[in-house]
Design brief:
This is P-loop containing nucleoside triphosphate hydrolase protein. By secondary structure, the chain is α/β, with parallel strands linked by helices. The protein has helices at residues 2-6, 30-41, 48-52, 57-70, 74-81, 96-102, 115-135, 138-143, 149-161, 170-187, 202-209, 224-260, and strands at residues 20-22, 45-46, 86-87, 107-111, 193-196. The chain has one domain: 3-Layer(aba) Sandwich (Rossmann fold). It has twelve helices and five strands. Strands 2-3-1-4-5 form a five-stranded parallel β-sheet, with helices on both faces.
Length: 262
């Protein structure tokens, strides 16, 4: 949970329509892009952390499920993204085509990285997070406003990779990652598209957006440590919850035995 909220923009104010649409998949430096775009634009940038964060989760998670099931209309997009000037990461990256139609003046950034390192990163972070989320105590999920988070994430991955997707299948994930990137290159007009690696730094990003280069280093945020820390916390909570549930059952059985069998 800490990972989801650490980089969340707090209480964004109403802004104009989207300026930048991030079409890149997760684990392509999207947290660094989020922070960089917020520095450049002076406005909030939407990220998965926004969808799962405490300010938005109870409203946004059901709306993203609705978008997958019924389509992302302009009114729904405005309702979710009306306070943001840019968006990166899932779930928005899964809807880059719709967002391009809804916001025709927005430019598109396709963030990329080496295929094999992307697969390894997805499996060591997102896959583990999904497995941990499945075991996370449901009452705590609802208390934190993420009761349907696993449903939303699964719906987005089904939309992206098909109903039989398997994040643990390295060959499948590598093939789909490259097919997805190739599709974006074909769909987005070249004058509207920037293919970007976070290692490129400010220069191509600022040139693409016609903005001056900031007088500070490009944010290079290694969020893997945050993911690992969050997973460790969630796993510990799950173990404690399981232990308490087991102890409660044993205690109840002992009480029933003493109460009715003596």
């Amino acid at each position: 949970i800490q990972f989801c909220t650490k980089y969340q923009t707090k209480m964004p104010q109403k802004t104009h329509s989207l300026v930048v649409i991030g079409a890149g998949a997760p684990r392509t430096g999207t947290v660094s892009q989020k922070v960089a775009l917020e520095l450049l634009l002076g406005q909030p940038c939407y990220h998965m952390g926004e969808a799962l964060g405490p300010h938005n989760s109870r409203r946004h998670i059901p709306m993203w499920i609705q978008a997958v099931e019924s389509g992302l209309s302009k009114s729904l997009a405005d309702e979710i993204l009306g306070n943001y000037a840019a968006c990166v990461d899932y779930p928005t990256a899964s809807f880059y085509k719709e967002l391009m139609q809804h916001y025709p003046n927005a430019k598109v950034i396709l963030s990329v990285r080496d295929t094999s390192s992307w697969v390894e990163s997805m499996q060591s972070s997102i896959l583990k997070a999904m497995h941990t989320m499945e075991r996370f105590p449901r009452p705590l999920k609802w208390l934190l406003g993420i009761g349907q988070a696993d449903k939303m994430i699964d719906a987005v991955f089904r939309r992206e990779f098909g109903d039989n997707y398997n994040l643990a299948d390295s060959e499948f994930m590598a093939r789909r990652f490259e097919e997805r990137n190739d599709s974006i290159r074909r769909v987005v007009p070249s004058e509207r598209l920037l293919e970007f690696r976070v290692s490129d730094g400010w220069a191509p990003l600022c040139q693409f957006l016609n903005l001056p280069v900031p007088d500070k280093p490009f944010p290079r945020l290694n969020d893997r440590k945050q993911v690992e820390r969050a997973l460790n916390i969630m796993t510990a909570i799950t173990y404690v919850s399981d232990a308490l549930a087991t102890a409660s059952c044993i205690g109840l059985a002992v009480w029933i035995g003493r109460r009715f069998l003596n």
